[in-house]
Write a structure and sequence with these properties.
single chain; Rossmann fold; 3 domains; seven-stranded parallel β-sheet; binds adenosine monophosphate
């Protein structure tokens, strides 16, 4: 078995690893670090949880140990698809580089351009960024990428899902041809294969076993329910979710509850809170500070139930949870494996409940084909029956009424929020309740590129169906793009 001492890492890095308590490199580290230290390109096929962040961060720090950064010319670049992932890489970097003098900057949305510009102006060794924000800085002339010696692309398949591949290609073209590229993806979709063939030079291909099977330490249970009315499916599912959590009692120390759509993440979180559970949502529309706070609370055990969408939860380094609840059956079978893999980690036991209604049959059989087993069916919790209200026509979302078991008047805020039926086919126009400021440019761009895939049928404005000519900018006396929407975000620019 490979030991860290076999790997030729910088002594300062070795000290940091020892302090982190790592005893031996993980398989992806053992395989990726040697070629990365030689300066070779690496194509890593691995998921979060395999130790892949250290597999590129440790050799990067070692290789950058000598040399100095010049103003506006970072020496290395790490691209991550979401703010959280970028922030996570930055945290890892801080841990592993604590005994070096290397500097870093984190370029993500939700942080003022001014602060970030100052750091870049001083010169940084490592620049960690989301693609949109990086290009925003570049376009503002604040950044030169011609000094990049090492470029990392993390979670490339997620980048593809989010429509970032054109940005990635552009960024590749802005960096020197002879840079070293470390490229990571959980899967190799044809488009990812194309990018790696175009931009990587004879890469060392390093692969850790793909998670197409579910761990034996996870007890899986499928609870099937036929709502009395199709348009009350969401209500019944919320009632069932509460009953399941209660039935688990103290064994449910902490749990992630997955929903397919952001709008349901909010509704489920709000509903659980109203019913006295310690719950909070996490998704892309929440303010950065709020998302970080929620995650910290969850990691520290102050928050018991985290309600998440796949996009928000993907790649987040969250310690083992006792339970995973699939409030919705995921429409991508692989997401089922990722979701339930949040529990039962490192040999510990975990429980994964999935709630299914008859409309999930198609997805369920795709999941069972993928995991090559039938998910064991579980009975409804003892005494559970859909409330009386679930038999009636839904009008609006009102948690208090669920508590009372009848329909109430609802507060004004709730009155404006229609209950989205789980099987809704028509697009629902929804304004996220916590949107306090207009989205900044990066978010808008991400949205147009399909970032909000987890939103299902929810469409904001014209969604992706805006006719192309409407999006084209043209000259008037004032450039169209300078109309005030950016104000909140670029005030320091
Ligand atoms: P990642 O796949 O990079 O998100 O890493 C998942 C988790 O594994 C993180 O919490 C790391 O701190 C941890 N980790 C990374 N490398 C090692 C190692 N060699 N030994 C033990 N834990 C590790």
């Amino acid at each position: 078995m490979t030991k860290f001492t076999d790997l030729n890492l910088d002594p300062n890095v070795m000290q940091a690893i020892a302090e982190a308590g790592y005893e031996a490199p993980t398989p992806i580290q053992a395989d990726a670090i040697p070629p990365a230290l030689e300066g070779r390109d690496v194509l890593g096929i691995a998921q979060t949880g395999t130790g892949k962040t250290a597999s590129f961060t440790l050799p990067m720090i070692t290789r950058l140990a000598h040399g100095r950064a010049r103003a506006r010319m970072p020496r290395s670049l790490v691209l991550a698809p979401t703010r959280e992932l970028a922030a996570q890489v930055a945290e890892n970097f801080d841990v592993y580089a604590k005994y070096t003098k290397l500097t870093k900057a984190l370029l993500i949305g939700g942080v003022s351009f001014g602060e970030q510009d100052k750091l870049i102006d001083r010169g940084v060794d490592v620049l960690i960024a989301t693609p949109g924000r990086l290009l925003d800085h570049f376009e503002r002339g604040k950044l030169l990428l011609t000094g990049v010696q090492i470029m990392v692309v993390d979670e490339a398949d997620r980048m593809l899902d989010m429509g970032f591949i054109p940005d990635i290609e552009r960024i590749f073209q802005l960096t020197p041809f002879n840079r070293q590229t470390l490229f990571f993806s959980a899967t190799m979709a044809p488009e990812i294969e194309r990018i790696t063939n175009t931009f990587l030079h004879a890469p060392a291909r390093v692969e850790v076993a793909r998670q197409a099977t579910t761990s034996e330490t996870i007890t899986q249970k499928l609870v099937q329910i036929t709502p009395p009315r199709r348009d009350q499916a969401a209500k019944v599912k919320r009632e069932l979710l509460r009953a399941l959590i209660r039935a688990e009692g103290e064994s449910c120390t902490n749990a992630i509850i997955f929903c397919n759509r952001k709008v349901d993440v909010d509704i489920v979180a709000k509903s659980l809170k109203t019913h006295g559970f310690n719950a909070a949502p996490i998704h892309g529309d929440l303010e950065q500070r709020q998302r970080m706070q929620t995650l910290d609370d969850f990691r520290e055990g102050k928050l018991q139930l985290l309600i998440a969408s796949d996009v928000a939860a993907r790649g987040l380094d969250i310690p083992a949870v006792s339970h995973v609840f699939n409030y919705d059956i995921p429409s991508h079978a692989e997401d089922y494996v990722h979701r339930i893999g949040r529990t039962g980690r490192a040999g510990r036991l975990g429980t994964a409940y999935s709630i299914a209604t008859p409309s999930d049959d198609k997805y369920l059989s795709q999941i069972e084909n993928l995991v090559k087993m039938q998910i064991p069916r579980a009975d409804l919790p003892e005494g559970f029956a859909p409330s009386e209200a679930a038999h009636r026509e839904p009008k609006k979302y009102d948690d208090r009424e669920e508590r009372r078991g009848g329909r109430g008047r609802g507060r004004e805020r709730e009155r404006r929020r229609p209950e989205p039926a789980a099987e809704a086919v028509a697009p629902v126009v929804e304004t996220p309740p916590h949107r306090e400021a207009p989205p900044h440019r990066e978010e808008r761009r991400e949205r147009h590129r399909g970032r909000d895939r987890d939103d299902g049928p929810v469409v904001i404005g014209m969604g992706d169906h805006v006719p192309d000519f409407l999006l084209r900018s043209f000259r008037t006396t004032k450039p169209v793009e300078e109309v005030p929407e950016e104000v909140g975000e670029t005030s320091e620019a």
